[in-house]
Amino acid sequence: MNYSTVAETYRKLDAVSGRIEMTEILAELLKKTPRDELPMLAYLTQGKLRPDYEGVELGLAEKLALRVIASASGLSQDAVYKTYVKLGDVGSAAEQLLSKKSQGTLISERLTLERVYKTLLKVSQTAGEGSVEAKQRELASLLNDASPLEAKYIMRAVTGELRLGVADYTMLDACALAFLGSKGGRPLLERAYNIHPDLGFIVETLASKGLGGIQAIRVEVGVPIRPMLAERLDSAKAIIAKLGNKVVAAEYKLDGERLQIHKQDEDATLFSRRLEVITHNYPDVLELVAKNVASKEAILEAEVVAINEDTGEYLPFQELMHRRRKYGVAEAMKQYPVALNFFDLLSAERKDFTNSPYRERRAKLESVVKETERTRPVPALRTADPEEVEKFMEEAIANGCEGLVVKDLEGVYRAGAREFSWVKLKREYRSELTDTIDLVIVGAFHGRGRRAGTYGTYLLAAYDDKKANFPTVSKIGTGFTDEDLQKFPRLLKKYESRVKPPNVESNLVPNVWFRPHLVIETIASEITLSPIHPAGMGRIRKESGLALRFPKFTGKIRDDKKPEDATTVEEIVEMYNLQLKKVERVVQ
Length: 588
Ligand code: ATP
Fold this sequence. Notes:
Layout: H1 3-15, H2 19-32, H3 38-45, H4 62-73, H5 77-87, H6 90-102, H7 113-125, H8 131-144, H9 148-158, H10 168-179, H11 186-195, H12 199-215, E1 229-232, H13 236-242, E2 248-253, E3 257-264, E4 267-271, H14 283-292, E5 297-306, H15 317-320, H16 329-335, E6 338-348, E7 351-352, H17 358-368, E8 375-377, E9 380-383, H18 386-398, E10 403-408, E11 418-426, E12 437-446, E13 455-461, E14 470-476, H19 482-492, E15 496-497, E16 504-505, E17 512-514, E18 519-523, E19 526-530, E20 545-549, E21 552-557, H20 569-587
Bound molecules: adenosine-5'-triphosphate.
The site of adenosine-5'-triphosphate has 14 residues, from strand 1 and strand 2.
């Protein structure tokens, strides 16, 4: 297929914001695409090259992107830079600058979707000495054959800024519309995607094998499953009532890192919460799994926690972060030993357990996980009595946990969903809110006084999963140690952007913008209405968004979360409503 058809569709997508229109436009494009090119199209449309869990990254540095445009347009880097700053994104700059050039020249070869895809894949895989020049050559040659409109989307894709707003679910809707004619079968598609989160694979399976092929997709060792998430409520009583006043399972909520363990014989692959492969960080976990999980082939979930070897006590999450490194893993392994608390089992000996109720999954888990000093099924209590749950919570906290996750005994494993089948109960003494909020740093303001020379305040955004963008909710300046103040600018450097990233919504203009990447945990005294911040604009009151009051950094960098895993606008609206209910209770 010609890339011009794709670029033309992207232009249309850029011009609409409603999900229905977007879905229809995308469905048309899917129908026109040859089957074997569908995966390429699915990835590219989301600004990706492969499913997330394979870790293939686009994201060419701004500087190199501008050099590519200079080389393809024959203009000076200075001229390109000026246009870029004026227009605000590399894609528009490429479009404008190349349109000047192409008036005189003939495009030598029509670009195909395949050529664009393969070039971008090659660029993303080029590393080492001479790679900068090689990347520049490949891309400039692509741009030479591109129309201005094509160049716009190629440059946006390659810098990781395509941002057509096509969320995963919009893509699934479009697939249903294109290949099923109506939206019947949509839940089946969603389930398939959640247990095999590779849109390219899903689209191709649907197009070639129909709904039958989709239904035949099973969980598979080696393919990560989107994690089931927990809702939040503020008391054991409320949780038990919500779960139907029956016996529930209350489990310790450990403060570690979530691991999805895919065991195959003596070996295993470890996926993080954001479904990245992190096997290399935990050679000791592989050993523990090989020794203490009595199943040849299984998918399990566990919270890995740092421990004090002498006392067996759990250490806070931060200690684990020492394990997240490329080099010196063996050293870190000795210094920061870990224990595993298994809390779920999703498959064993090729039997898919995701549709089995919790009670069956737990029974199977208990039968395969050996209880040792370093491994065990997470402590759990079955009861229908809120007081017992509260007591168990005290015990959990005394044992170094954050609180509890209370689970419905009949609940199946709903991959990728945050529902009231798992409800977390934490105790945040410091706040009126029932939970911490994980936000993305999108900007920073220069500091003054003690913070001169570094950033004094950061601008934070939540994730809007309907619009697939990041609206701001808060500025934050407290909770940072001197060490943090030094460290943050270093961590953020590579995400700096001279213009507001297109997927950020903000009425404030910081001194420096950052592309949304780094997620930090915050706590606030409450959520308030705000005319300034666009998160949840109009949801509670017309012309008001929501903002955090007295936000504070807890010290936790959530690098186990992608920016899209940050707290969503929807959750913040829900927390605002929960807070109102609390106030009502006090007033009554
Ligand atoms: P949080 O910031 O509270 O960890 P989160 O957004 O990472 O929240 P939630 O779905 O809200 O994820 O909470 C569930 C998380 O708690 C899981 O991702 C997992 O890492 C951790 N956890 C610890 N113990 C358990 C348990 N017994 N069952 C399920 N999850 C547990």
